[in-house]
## 1
Amino acid sequence: MNPNTSSTEYREILKNALLEIRHLRQQLETQTEAIAIIGLGCRFPVNVNTPEAYWELLKNGVDAITEIPKQRWDIEKYYDSNPDIPGKMYTRYGGFIDGVDQFEPQFFGISPREAISLDPQQRLLLEVSYTALEHAGQSPENLRGSKTGVFIGISFDDYSRRNINSGDLTRIDAFSSLGNTRSIAAGRISYVLGLNGPTLQLDTTCSSSLLAVHLACQSLRNKECNLALAGGVNLMLSPEATIGFCKLKALAADGRCKTFDAKADGYSRGEGCGIVILKRLSDAIENQDNILAVIRGSAVNHDGQSNGLTAPNGSAQEAVIRQALANAKVQPEDIQYVEVHGTGTSLGDPIEVLALAKIFGENRSKNQPLNIGSVKTNFGHLESAAGVASLIKVVLSLQHQKIPPHLHFQQPNPYIPWQKLPVKVTQKLTAWETETGQQLAGISSFGMSGTNVHLIVENSPIIFSEPNSIERPFHLLTLSAKTEKALQELAQSYHHFLASNSDVSLADICFTANTGRSHFDYRLAVVAQTHQQLSKSLTDFVAKKERPELFSQQIKSKKQPKIAFLFTGQGSQYEGMVLQLYQTQPTFRNALNYCAEILQNHLDIPLLDLLYSPNFQPLIHQTIYTQTALFAVEYSLFKLWKSWGIQPDILIGHSLGEYVAACVAGVFSLEDGLQLVASRARLMQQLPQNGEMVVVFADEETVKACLESQPNQVEIAVINSPQNTVISGEIEAVNKVVESLNQQGYKTQKLPVSHAFHSRLVEPMLAEFREVAEKIQYNLPSIDIVSNVTGT
């Protein structure tokens, strides 16, 4: 340091250095931040179309391998038990999903002609991505233009073999080219959903989809995107790839992946699609997303030179797992379960188990063995979708706190020294127990290309939130679809969900359905108080029965209807008003509490006491309290409607309500608005209480004629409608006018107000009120306001 540096300069240098250290620390924390999994989507063999169905398959130990369907290829034409026969396959089995030829192109804005040329893998990715976003409560409609990334693993293009490479070159057109290009599979998702984050297709064969998850996490940490879709897809639509793997002798003849068993002789090919929705953990907590699990860390490397191009490398596997543990900042002994790559080969299984034991065996007793298993034993090796299938399995296991059974393990592989290793193959549904409550798992995915990936996943954090002590009395469920049939099916699916999930909060179900889905033309709204009532109403809708709590309609106009908010004036108050909203609606309660805090310096009785304390409630009809209370209540109601997604296009206020409308439009702040109204109310309260207001159910001209008998004592205060006119003035004069009107057959109704507002009797307060009003800062309105005096 320069000896001539002053103490002030030294302090400034030190301050800047500390700021730089803090910045570097924040950068380091961001680069290692955990990633939250907030949504899942999947299509796996034997009609596994939801995470719930996937868990049923896993926990029940279902073997989903079937004979190759005739719709894929004629197995008799290609089968031969002799593996050396050219052009033949020695297995008849695989894990297949149903309905790959089914697709609703119009839902995604795709023409039927283009859909025919579209690789079913692209169709499947669109469908599963959409359902995963809805599972995460992320409305696809609201994501348009957002920094949402898409990371997709896809390796094979069987459809082009059947469609383009058939020898008939005239079948090639623009649609078939784009529909069968693998990079377009990822790009099409971002195109259809309008996403602007990084979008890429990955192919490292078996590790493709887990690599997609790894890169998505990196992208989120680097803030290239704020939300990410990651996963992979694999379909077997032509026989060529299966024949090729048979020539490598990589497949099991019986179609079963017998991982870790003495009879392990290869894997069975499987197909499916899986997508996970990812978000930075801090953002997920802030947005109150449903966090299913957390990715603590991950790593990727390559085998380098090994015993063969496709042969596994134990040293590389050890290295990638150690790096993943380091990145996750956890110790090997903290991991309780590993979802292994486990392709079921006599060469690969021992290498993988020994690598696991070498790492996770450190500081681990045989009384606390590492549990291992592989979903490949259920439905085969999904290749480019294998990693994400394993990840979703682990997430569901963490959710249910159980480890599913590993199948086809009858006689342990003799090349694995089981007695010396602290590892255990889970052969039955096993409780996932830990002493600390922290559940950690590793997931391995090793590519035939040599690219290895490992993830460390943790159970979701416990987030404490203040429970709502009083349940709202009614709930509103809104559903929509693009066709009437689809709406019926959606209603039916919600009915089934309610039937098997009676413990889930009805408020949560409705909130997610109302805000976490895009809204389409065929719409249904259901009002209900209980699960049973909502379930019954949905059943009646499907049966096309009419019920008063069911509202269904097709939206035929694409033009968004404009919404006007009308804020009422004095006279609408009542004792204990909006108590139920205050008790059951946090948004309303928070807004009203904030108004009460501001009004502490303007009212001699706390606002909440005026509204809800029996000792003070009768005072609500005194002007000094009425106007401030109505302003606070109406402003809080606006905040509540806004939280429900209902925004006004135009505002109008009735008398006092104009102040609320102006505040909502940004003409002045909430603090200034409450000060204005409190001062207005105080000055009005000080006026002599010698007047009253009466509603006359007659037209303006009729009322004017009656007022001529009381010149300058009674006047028209408000014209509510052609047959609703309010008069205001001195009590005695008003009574005479009312008597005259009643004699003519016109009905009248006295208003519960303390003064003759909107008349000459309030003019004495104007000078002092002007002084208050001139101290307020005013702005141009951000929302149009209609004047209730001029109508402009």
## 2
Amino acid sequence: MSEPTPPVVEPTAEPTVEGRRSRRARLADRFNRLASWAFASRLRMIVLGVAGMLMLGAMVAGSSYFGQVALEPVDLASVELAIAAADEGRYDDAKLLVGQMQRRPATPRLLGGALFVLGAVKAHEAELEVSPERRRLVHEIAVRYMRKARTLGLPGKRQGRAAYLLGKSLVGSGQWKDAIAALEEALRDESQPATEIRALLVAALLEGTDDNVADALKQNELVLADPKLSPENRERALVVGAGAHLDLHQFKQARETLAQLPKGSSFAATASLLAGRLEIEEAQSLGEGSPERAAKLSAALSRLQEAVRLDVENGPLTRQASLWMARRLEANDEHAAALAEYDRIGSVYVDTPEGLAAMLAAADYYRRGGQFERAMLGYRQVLRAIDAQLTYDSSLMPLSEVRQRLTTAFQQYVDEERFAEALALVEHLEPVFGRVSCAEWRAKTSQQWGELQLARSNHGGRPEEVAARLEARARLRAAGLAYEELARLRYAARQFSDDLWSAADCYFKGQSFTQAVRLLQEYLHHEAKRQNSLALLKLGQARLAIGEYDQATVTLEECIDMYPDDAVAHQARLECARAYQQRGRLDVAEQMLLINLVGGTLKPASPEWRNSLFELGGLLYESERYDEAIEKLQEAVERYPAEESALVARYTIARAYHDASEAPAKRLQAGKTENERQAARADLIGYLTKAHESYQAVQRKITLRGRSGGDELDLALLRNCYLMQGAVLFELRRFEDALQAYGNVIASYQDDPIALESFVQVASCWRRLNQPVKSRVTLDQAQMVLKELPPETDFLTTTNFSRQQWESLLTQMSRW
């Protein structure tokens, strides 16, 4: 099949140059002829001028007229006509009048009147909407119009009317708190429909988040007291009153109110629902196993079934009756059936208030039964649904009840140390509890979790304990972040400085010292006196931890000078001594420690005195004052044998004896007389013997307490003790004993580069024993061990040489 032939489009002929010139020539010819005619006589000139003036005047007058019409302002009469039309219920006319005024200038008050009319029209249109969501949105538009009208001002005395219409639309859009204020203002205007306003106020009070049921009941009684109230509205008010009495657990009054409803009432289904609820709540107030309780629960079922039968639309009343049937099962101890019914309601009536209430009840069941993951799923679904609703229907599940139940769930998670679930729940609680409360819960939960993990890690050195401490500190840093967020949220509140302190403290315990410094400085800036001494101490400690030694000493000395009588001054002095020690100012550090020890205010039982004694021993050792160091450390070990620091102190004593032997060794070499050499030799042997005994004592201590299998500190000290024993025995020329000591190291650490050190020392011992063959065999064994060590082995952690340097050293030694 051939394609259709496109139509032929004829090109449009363009005027030629000659054509254009011809038209201009004809126009010029006509103008010349008119000019010739006009200038032929004076009379013709006058006639042409007058005609031109008239035409110009007409153009100016027309322009002026139309401009005046376009800028004519809105007058009060126009606004009054529109308001009157709205008051008379002629909303279409009112809307048309306002539409005509929209493009004309107006004073703010008259503009406020026009917006007032638009608000009234929108409020009326909202009542005509069938869709609840659409109705709420139109009411929101009415609220915006009416609020703007009240801001600009209204002509005449219409503030009361505006307050009434505003309150009505606020109720319609679910803005209960604002509605209460507007309706209470409207009631002060006696010209407004008080009964209708009170009925709206009752709805706002009952639906609001605050506990206003008693006030709602009082307003409802005033509604019922109106003799002009229509029968339908009276029945509606009776039902509302019965529900309010039930909310207040006033069962007698609720029953009496329901009894006032006439037979055949249009609210019969609602009345049956309330009657069933009344029976259930009365039954719950009776004791377990009471015959009357069972009778009331049986009667409740009949009432609820009647409500379902009367609800021909199978709508909210049916859903509510189903929910109360499930609650009846729960009250009757039929928990498995109740849970099944709650699950059914939650799945069938999704995204309805009844469905949410059922899901929350089911989640509570699962939580109490230990099914925490399934409970968490239910809580999340409920909280997401509440967050997604712009207006929350709290008639079946008041927010106060939701808060109470979620608080119970959260507290159970915390009490049972299920901190992960507790924090997961907090992440969804903001729609119900607000951002501040959730930040506080998040901070406190993370802090409790971290501190508990830190306490249980036992401060040991086993890998699992180290990992537990790392995780605990991560939790504490998360708590610090949460507390800092809380502080920013409560910047203007009295808790601000407390939140800063908690944040800094958690950062400090989590070893995020840079963040701790930042927040402690901010705390000291804002807080006048509370905990300032402790804040200065922690600030100095944090600066010491990150290597800011100069700033640390300044801060700690400020703490000591400003709070000399405070208990923290002793700890500040200890920390300041450590900072000076890091700066190489050992003399100043020693003076500070001595003040703690001999100043008279501290007792040996205090931790500051104890730590100062250990610290002074270490400082003396670093100062190479070995005899003094041994004396102080020996005193510390004898006073506090169970302290963690005691083991390191014992090892330092051994090192002090060992290092102190260098002086007599030098005297022995330099001695000129036999007496000098004998005295030096005796001192040398004495120090080395004491060192060997001390190393052995530390080795036994570690072995007996049974932590050498995983504690990193114990492993390091034990390894060093083996090596140092070998070194001391070698220096004592007890080569066979040294061989045994180094052999223990090789056997215990054959997969560690430290074994290479021992092989070298063993080879030296064989050489001293005049066994060169055994020495070479030992070096060959060392080369074989070196080859078998994995490529990623870190040699510099435990030895002084890299792999290449070890290869070179062992090759060179094997040639000797």
## 3
Amino acid sequence: MSVLAADAEVVLRDGSTVHVRPIAPEDRDRMRAFLGLLSQDSRRLRFFSGGANLDWAAGAAIEAGFPGSYGIVATRGDDRIVAHATYGMATEDRAEVAFAVADEMQGMGIATTLLAHLAEAAEEAGILWFEAEVLPENHRMVEVFRDSGFAVRTHSVPGAIHIEFPTTLGRGARDRFEERESVAATAAVSSFLAPTSVAVVGASRRAGSVGHETLRNVVDAGFTGPVYAVNAHADSVLSLPTFRSIGDVPGPVALAVIAVPAAAVVETARQCAAKGVKALVVLSAGFGETGAAGAVRQRELVQVCRSSGMRLVGPNCLGVLNTDPSVRLNATFAPSFPPSGQVGFLSQSGALGLAVVDHAQALSLGLSSFVSNGNKADISGNDLLQYWEQDDATQLIVLYLESFGNPRKFARLARRVGKRKPILAVKSGRSKAGARATGSHTGALISASDVTVDALFRQAGVIRTDTLSELFDVATLLDAQPVPRGGRVGIVTNAGGLGIMCADACEANGLAVPDLPDALQAELAEFLLPTASTANPVDLIATAGPEEYRLAIEAMAASGAVDAIIAIFIPPLVTRAEDVAGAICAAAATLDRSVPLVSVFASHAPAPVRLAGARVPAYAYPEDAARALARATDYGRWLGRDPGAIRTFDGLRRGEAAAVIAAALKREPGWLRPDEVATLLSCYGLATPESALAATPDAAAQVAERFGGPVAIKAVSPTLVHKTDAGGVALGLVGREAVAAAARDMGESAAATGHVVEGYLVQRMAPAGVEMLVGVVHDPLFGPVVACGGGGTTAELIRDVAVRVSPVTDRDAHDMVRSLRTYPLLCGYRGASPVDVDALEDVVLRLAAMVDEHAEIAEVDMNPVIVGADGALVVDARIRVEQPPPRHPWPAVGA
């Protein structure tokens, strides 16, 4: 038994990695060498004797594949074992666990991580408890167990300490592992952004080349540590002496920046590993982005890094930079170095990264650090999120993403980080995010666009923008101003037309432009000209000067009537834009940092003006300001939103559900039979009308007669997706003859369109209600994606659907239903009786629970779900199962 179906790279406390895999018979010699290198004390603590027979111990370790036992190893270098962990069955539901870690690797978190792998494997094998015997003086191992986060119990026995704990990775243990993961990721990224020394390998003497410009940038930025130039064919570059290879550098090298031809990169990386380099930035192109040969080269590069514990940014990237005055690192070939600020920026595109750095400088948008991770073969956006989370210099995180490696992990991290620091993202590929092979209404709705990415960002609180221009608009706002507390906007302008345009743009983006209180309008009238308008927008008229702007903004902010202010200026003949900008900033300096203030300068947008510590973003058009403010307001609403809870349900028949799925997989992966669908839904309390299968039209008539009253019949065919289109559904049938005739017609219609009817499903007619759709598609990256929307035969026509990425909370279900355009139908539209909305939410949550607990469920389409006054019935459903991909143990390198 092996939960490690695929090898895993695990990040250690210092940010380096080890390779974790199941132990194998061919590991005997490696295991013997590992045990032989343990100190006498380590062997005594592991085997309770310093004189243990190591040949026997190595043989016993590789036999950990026999029933009831399991063993894993951590390796480095040329598959050198540096740690071993195993468990063996003690009783039916208990196993004894033991570890050994190389002396030089102790204290780096290996034992704790291997414990998580063992526990996950044991839980899948039905083992409920781990236990261990530890010598009293083995304080380090006792602390490993205590600090693991598992619910550890200890008691003393003669000559030893007995330890036991459940194998379930509960909330406490997960919190501990998340904390360790964050520490490891921070250490890894720090090795790139705060190195003690830098070597540029491929530092060319040719101006304009990547190697030359990168070395120039490192020097010109004033990097605070030693800088080494490596060039096999020159004696000096930029007045720095050169070294023929990285191995010739006299001092230690913390960060190596590689700018050599792609064919030479792997060998250069090997030399860096031999030198003891901790971090590698590969600027060179010619890897996975170029095709099959490049992909092979990239795998070789990653393997070199993995085997030595060295971390990698790139390949095919722009590089990294850090504006911290104590570091001053610019290991990029960008033409400029941005001002220091509080924005952390990640770009998967090197070319776009160049534009980002240049544009940030033009906008006076200061960066704390910047990483272009190119092909992201190792260091990922998830690693950077965890680094920026703890980086005091970073208060705003901006991401340009082209793809996800581990979106579920991204969502978990973003949800946590976003509570402290806003995360802005442009995700490319909005038009065709998922060409999924689906066979249901739900699959068609979800695969039609990247609604899954939208759902992921919405749940995680990530502010998504559609364009780079909008990204910078929102970034400059959040970099300079507080997050809005609500959506009420006050507008101050000297041009009525622009004020109206701004109000329209605000409302189009979900903001409100409320009427101002009488008291505030009276206060404004005291200092404005009689021809000015004190309504909202407040029209100061064209002759207004800087003082009117300052007073109007201060009065509006102090009134409590608005949550944000947009000040609009178009130059008349006499008033200068610079003077008004100064007045706006002077007003901003008096605000209590609870009301954000933005400006629009219609003729030209000056860079944000600083005055008395205040900085106000400036836009060229009212629509830009309104859109940026709306995105920031959505984030503020997310911050104040109750995330809800994962609902638990009593009486679920999980074991029976697993048996249904297992039987179907044994037969053949694919769509379940109608009786299996009904059983699976009933296991999770999802109600369906009384129904029965019939093999022939006459048998269907007999079932209908037994049911009595009107019935529905449906053709059963594995190839019929849209039964109605093929004449495969008949409703409201009464009597034997009507049912038999309808069934015969179905068989003929199906045959005419190339389908084979295997039987007929006869159902009692459901009570009247609103037709809805609830379903799931299991995305290979995102996991279960839950959808709820308008149902029936027009589901794909009206395309009214709300989507969430699992896990789904009760608040998610509540918001999904209420976000639909068809929601008024549930509330009693045009005199109709309202229906049981809570019952629909319950269906969403029960389905989410089912797919969360059974990864084999690939697709569920429940359409229609009839929502009536007294509940919800799943009238038609299709469920597809398949063997899920191997599950990687947690935590590991990934993203």
## 4
Amino acid sequence: MRRFAWIVTIAALLVLGSGCQRAAPSLEERAKGALAQTKGRLPLSGLSKQVEVLRDQWGVPHIYAQSADDLFFAQGFVAAQDRMFQLDLWRRAGAGELAEILGPSYIERDRFARLMRYRGDMQAEWPSYSPDAKAILTSFARGVNAFIATSGDKLPIEFQLLGIRPGVWKPEDSLLRIAGLLMSRNAVSEVVRAQLIERLGPELTEALLPPEPPVKIESLKDPLLAGIDTSMMRTLEAAIGPARFDEKTEPGSNNWVIDGTMSATGKPLLANDPHRPVVLPSLRYLAHLVAPGWNVIGSGEPALPGIAVGHNERIAFGFTIVPIDQEDLYVEKTNPQNPNQYRYQGQWRDMQVEHEKISVKGRPEPVDAALKFTVHGPVIHEDPAHNRVFAMRWVGTEPGTAGYLPSLALDRAQNWQQALEALERWKVPTENIVYADVDGNIGWVAAGMTPVRNWSGLVPIEDEAGKYEWKGFLPVSEHPQRYNPPEHYIATANHNILPRGYRHQLGFEWTPPFRFGRIDEVLKSGIQAGKKFTIEDFEKLQHDATSIEARKLVELLKVAPGSDPSRAMLTSWDCVLSKDSAAAALYELWVRRLKEQFLAERVPADVRALAASRFNDWTMIELLKREPPAKRNALLTEALRDAAAEAVRRMGEDVKQWRWGALHHIRFHHPLALDAERRKLFDLGPVERGGDSNTVFNTGGTGFQQTSGASYREIFDVADWDRSVATSVPGQSGQPASPHYADLLPLWADGKYFPLPYTRAAVEKYTTQKLILEPK
């Protein structure tokens, strides 16, 4: 959803100049007039029986239906009531229909989206998610369309400002692949690594970007692989959004689960905080779905039916990204006499070429888009000057690889065995899924479709001979997993989860283990102290700002000579990145300077930013340890001196006035907020933040602005589901005049949670609005 923050900006500029010759309602009045009906009775065509929608005081809809068809019709309708503009942009981006409303600059993006569309057997696609997936997605689409039909001209304010209408929703729209592609960035990583190898050499590149576990990387000496440059990067960026080549904004997450021996209730507790872009409106949408065979609550994405992370009557589940490599770039030699032919297995082969028409705003005729494919997959970049094209093989061409939809099966699992069976369907995105059940069991599976290769997959390859081909996919039974471990707990945080001696290849690029290290430390120390953990303990841990990275760097600083005040400030600091900490502010300026100076000594200026995009702080610390002490100490102290000077420039001479929160914020900016009236209606913040990208309280971003992290958190009490809690931001509704547009922001900003009621009695206790949907 991060890409939507800029998708509509150009279109918004087109409507700014339009004005009225007569008095008109204010923007706020227009927004209020567009609010959906959330109480009373509402007759709808397409329902078979009455459905109750009880919205609690935090805007979470609890939907009670008498059949699965009516349940998912209602989920689609209710999601559209709150997030119709978000839904429409999601659909257009995935279907390749943005240029129709935003103009010519989106033609290439639309072409790429259509290139990524699933073209396989639909008889294999639908049941891959669950046996009734087609029926569920059909009902969900009918619900979305029912909202559009009943809205008439009373559309959300964004549609009014842009002068557009939402398109019709089809069941197949929930199967679009672009959203899943955004969660798998290995193709971009391959390009970065190839460029660095060419400019820096393989040894330095491997030192800066060490694969885990160590592996021999394929040679790039073939002339066809030379000069993979920024033009390729620009193609990828245009195709999958404004990619930030900074590990601090990569998708991440934390999750952990403990069994009853470690909890105050004697039953498991499960905590999860998925990290994705923190945007307006929120990427996440909470709901509670109740019908025969269904009683699941939690969060998902508004454009998808079901619940992605949550619990039913018997089991709870949560996830974090596990970076399994699901993409490979192939460089294909093309025929100088015919650019639509490529060399494979000793002969020229014709590419498969499809032509589609893309409607473009402002143009009377649609534009022809040529979609090309080789035996390896869609052609994502053409380089006629070097007689080559880049084709991408990725799992999205396989049945069942639309993101998150296998949760339709997991939502109804009743035990560990049924959960494992459901996870056989889980293909995209790749996730560490943790599990707990009412019988006291806990478990974990690294789930997702894993290609079997005979090469590393870390750089683009030339494969005219056909020797670099996937050999099928690894069954889930061979994926790393645990069930009721003797440690009594399981935790993941995007770190390297490969068991010692694991013989299969999942991937080689992991998040630094700082966050996992802190979670593991707290849980282990609890065991040693005989502590029994509570929900309140896990709320605190999800907001823990203790930096393992800071500890490691401060330890190095302690042995460096010096006695200046800035050194004393850090060496006496507790390494907690609280927003009120002066030392935390100095530390963050220091570690940024340190990384810049470390790379400046080793990497030429023209590729330094590229190297920094994949060079992480864990690797920097390990390389610093290997430096001669005198050289390391000089680098540490020089960077600290520069950081102290920057702190004075930013926050003044008085150290008592220094605060990490004074530098570190989050702002919720709406792309249509282009004047004072709109900013007042749409925008939220700024909000001061503690933590950083390497703390459990993940608040990563660029320029000290948080752009990613946990917009949603959940903690489930298996002993009593009604004691479960959650946070989300900024609110359940995407409509700015709604009371639920920003009501969750103050709680989220203060690290506070709201109840997630589950039983009917608990739901009714917190209900503030009741809407009866009835057959028309």
